[in-house]
Amino acid sequence: MKRGADFNNFWKSYLLSGNRNLLYVLGRGFDPRMCIGFGAILGAGGYGVRNCLVIEFDEGPDSPSRRHISLVEKNLKILKNLIQFRGEILTKSVRMWSGDGPGRRRVGSRNAAAVFWDISDLENYTDIVIDISAMPRGIYFSLIGKILYLLDHAKKNDQARLIPNLHVVVSENVRLDKKIRDVGIDDNASYVHGFGRGLEMEATEGIPKVWIPILGEGQRGQLERIYTLVNPDEICPVFPSPSLNPRRGDELLIEYRELLFDQWRIEPKNIIYASEQNPFEAYRQIHRTVCHYNRSLGPLGGCKSVISAVSSKLLSIGALLAVYELKETGMSVGLAHVEAQGYEIDEIENVGCINDQVELFTLWLAGDCYE
Description:
Helices cover 36% and strands 23% of the residues. It is of the alpha/beta class.
């Protein structure tokens, strides 16, 4: 992981080390951070193709996000000016609903996993970069999980002439995150596509369930819906500590005190702490916790573990990595999530000032550095 000034230093040295063909994947949205990471990587120089795949989210005609179409068009104009003659802009649409009317179903997570069908979609590139700054959580969970699977499967079976590196980029700005809100969350939680099969099988109904929610502000409705879905026997909430705001953990404890301790009766010793800006630490803490419960409950057949992230994108990546790796070892794990009908952003008086406060993070998840 590299951040801030080290982000630029890493990409400059990395791209100048040889001819590298990049596929940069980002979400089409109103978030002013949509193009910041791509601009920084293009500015690092180097040789090779710099293609950009724009994921378009089809949320339907009634989505609250449509109110900010002018901000979307502004971001697309910035993107076209950035790429110019360096590569192509490719687009893929992801439908969030199966159709119209009362019988429609959520299919965004499943469709996001289908953006890349097999390793042949990736093997013309040396590096795949997924920028999640303007992507909904349900989309980038499935997208990154599918790419990790394709890379691992191709490597094990020697199915590709070139297996690319996988990077994730996040433009972190806590102040801006607070200005973006979920609108009209779904009535029911669900498991992210590819991360929940088998958790609700009748054959394993008696096995204890452990729920590990990563907490963030203003998410009580989401937490209650996920609790209803999971119906856990044990809860181990994750609080961000250390964090940029030293009192953030305390403030979250106050916000959810009644829910956690009065309603759900969690044990204080079950609380987990993970660094707000280190997804690899969150991954290690979650991984360690799930393995501990499986060992302790071994005489009962182990346990089923469900992780949910209602916090920052960085911590969400930590949750995804833990679930992916645990799933690959054969453990019964899932990733629970509550989708929103759309998103709204408060009026921003000075976008330039907001963007100046963005800190870029890059995570190298798979590839040469792990050989």
